[in-house]
């Protein structure tokens, strides 16, 4: 105890350590920092570790966040190049890696970002052997497979942020058309977090009223109301934002924070996340794709088996076959 502390306080008991809600965010670029800020501002974690290879930037981001302590919930914020500082994390979120440049697809990033996982995933597992890993870096589904392989963890403990973001975009765009709130629209995008994502038009509903019952052609090519455009806008969203501001970060940061909150509070919320799909919906490929899943403290607990229309199953199979082929070319 320093002199000032000794004279200022009269001790009664030692502080009790809080149950840890430590979260590590690997990669402090636009996405990593949006994730960290979302976690801190919503009080989801009070103990954040930032990891990156850029030492000065790490120190700068750490100091800048620490100076906001007064407006937060007195969080601990550490930053280091060394994975030792991530020890004891409950959740590790991987956002490290290159991002798309204008005109590039997510799949163009695959080998470069897989190489980064070769060092980051074993180091995270070594220091936080009980953590749940959430993969955000792109291409999200393939990198989740790579992370799962490298981690040697059971499938429940590694998942990708997947189409949790795409589903949010989908619900927002439908809500805008209908004039109600995003949370009142129930709709799911499944499959690849990317160009072959699958909108489950057969299940879109408001208060249990299936929109397909009112507009049977919804989402079809010959739909007079052109609802299919909503899915096209979901696919184009990242390309459009990248063209406008260079990257996307706020919505994915909020999405990753929501997934983390579900784990840390063992909430059993259903989110569309990238999970091992082999054996589900007739798929025989060892790939990760998004399906609605119940998430809790143990990671992915169950997958919701949606009653997909034949064209939706077919589109999911197309994504799975394509990702499986790309996966075969990755050097692990
Ligand atoms: N899944 C999703 O919905 C989304 C995924 N992304 C993806 O997230 C990734 C990150 O995007 P941004 O933050 O915009 O990129 P960024 O370029 O701003 O940041 C990437 C960070 O990763 C760090 N990094 C690189 N190698 C590293 C290593 N070995 N260890 C630790 N850190 C390392 C870099 O130093 C940099 O700070 C990209 O792959 C991007 O495509 C972006 C938006 C949405
Ligand atoms: C970049 C990306 O994956 C997204 O915003 O959806």
TrEMBL record:
<feature type="binding site">
    <location>
        <begin position="27"/>
        <end position="32"/>
    </location>
    <ligand>
        <name>NAD(+)</name>
    </ligand>
</feature>
<feature type="binding site">
    <location>
        <position position="52"/>
    </location>
    <ligand>
        <name>NAD(+)</name>
    </ligand>
</feature>
<keyword id="KW-0560">Oxidoreductase</keyword>
<protein>
    <recommendedName>
        <fullName>L-lactate dehydrogenase</fullName>
        <ecNumber>1.1.1.27</ecNumber>
    </recommendedName>
</protein>
<comment type="pathway">
    <text>Fermentation; pyruvate fermentation to lactate; (S)-lactate from pyruvate: step 1/1.</text>
</comment>
<comment type="similarity">
    <text>Belongs to the LDH/MDH superfamily. LDH family.</text>
</comment>
<feature type="binding site">
    <location>
        <begin position="136"/>
        <end position="138"/>
    </location>
    <ligand>
        <name>NAD(+)</name>
    </ligand>
</feature>
<dbReference type="Pfam" id="PF00056">
    <property type="entry name" value="Ldh_1_N"/>
</dbReference>
<dbReference type="InterPro" id="IPR011304">
    <property type="entry name" value="L-lactate_DH"/>
</dbReference>
<dbReference type="Pfam" id="PF02866">
    <property type="entry name" value="Ldh_1_C"/>
</dbReference>
<dbReference type="InterPro" id="IPR001236">
    <property type="entry name" value="Lactate/malate_DH_N"/>
</dbReference>
<feature type="domain" description="Lactate/malate dehydrogenase N-terminal">
    <location>
        <begin position="22"/>
        <end position="160"/>
    </location>
</feature>
<dbReference type="InterPro" id="IPR036291">
    <property type="entry name" value="NAD(P)-bd_dom_sf"/>
</dbReference>
<dbReference type="InterPro" id="IPR022383">
    <property type="entry name" value="Lactate/malate_DH_C"/>
</dbReference>
<dbReference type="GO" id="GO:0005737">
    <property type="term" value="C:cytoplasm"/>
</dbReference>
<dbReference type="GO" id="GO:0006089">
    <property type="term" value="P:lactate metabolic process"/>
</dbReference>
<dbReference type="InterPro" id="IPR001557">
    <property type="entry name" value="L-lactate/malate_DH"/>
</dbReference>
<dbReference type="InterPro" id="IPR018177">
    <property type="entry name" value="L-lactate_DH_AS"/>
</dbReference>
<feature type="domain" description="Lactate/malate dehydrogenase C-terminal">
    <location>
        <begin position="163"/>
        <end position="326"/>
    </location>
</feature>
<dbReference type="InterPro" id="IPR015955">
    <property type="entry name" value="Lactate_DH/Glyco_Ohase_4_C"/>
</dbReference>
<feature type="active site" description="Proton acceptor">
    <location>
        <position position="193"/>
    </location>
</feature>
<dbReference type="GO" id="GO:0004459">
    <property type="term" value="F:L-lactate dehydrogenase (NAD+) activity"/>
</dbReference>
<keyword id="KW-0520">NAD</keyword>
<feature type="binding site">
    <location>
        <position position="113"/>
    </location>
    <ligand>
        <name>NAD(+)</name>
    </ligand>
</feature>
């Amino acid at each position: 105890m320093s002199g000032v502390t000794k004279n200022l306080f009269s001790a009664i008991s030692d502080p009790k350590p809080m149950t840890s809600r430590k979260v590590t965010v690997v990669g402090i670029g636009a996405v990593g920092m949006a994730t960290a800020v979302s976690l801190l501002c919503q009080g989801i974690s009070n103990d954040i570790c930032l990891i990156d290879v850029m030492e000065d930037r790490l120190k700068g981001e750490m100091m800048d966040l620490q100076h906001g302590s007064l407006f937060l919930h007195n969080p601990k914020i550490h930053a280091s190049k060394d994975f030792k500082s991530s020890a004891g994390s409950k959740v590790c979120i991987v956002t490290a890696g290159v991002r798309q440049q204008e005109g590039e697809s997510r799949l163009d990033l695959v080998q470069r970002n897989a190489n980064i996982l070769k060092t980051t995933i074993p180091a995270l597992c070594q220091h936080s052997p009980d953590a749940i890993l959430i993969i955000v870096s792109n291409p999200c589904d393939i990198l989740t497979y790579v992370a799962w392989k490298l981690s040697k963890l059971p499938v429940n403990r590694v998942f990708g942020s997947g189409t949790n973001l795409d589903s949010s975009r989908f619900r927002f765009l439908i809500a805008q058309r209908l004039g109600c709130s995003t949370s009142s629209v129930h709709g799911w995008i499944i499959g690849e977090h990317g160009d072959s994502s699958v909108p489950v038009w057969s299940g879109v509903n408001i208060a249990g009223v299936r929109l397909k019952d009112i507009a049977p052609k919804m989402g079809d090519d010959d739909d007079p109301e052109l609802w299919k455009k909503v899915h096209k806008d979901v696919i184009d969203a990242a390309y459009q934002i990248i063209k406008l501001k260079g990257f996307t970060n706020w919505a994915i940061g909020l999405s990753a924070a929501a997934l983390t909150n579900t784990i840390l509070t063992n909430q059993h919320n259903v989110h569309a996340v990238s999970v091992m799909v082999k054996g589900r919906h007739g798929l025989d490929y060892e790939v990760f794709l998004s399906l609605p899943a119940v998430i809790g403290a143990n990671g992915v607990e169950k997958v919701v088996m949606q009653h997909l229309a034949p064209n939706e199953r077919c589109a999911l199979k197309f994504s799975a076959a394509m990702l499986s082929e790309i996966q075969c070319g990755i050097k692990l």
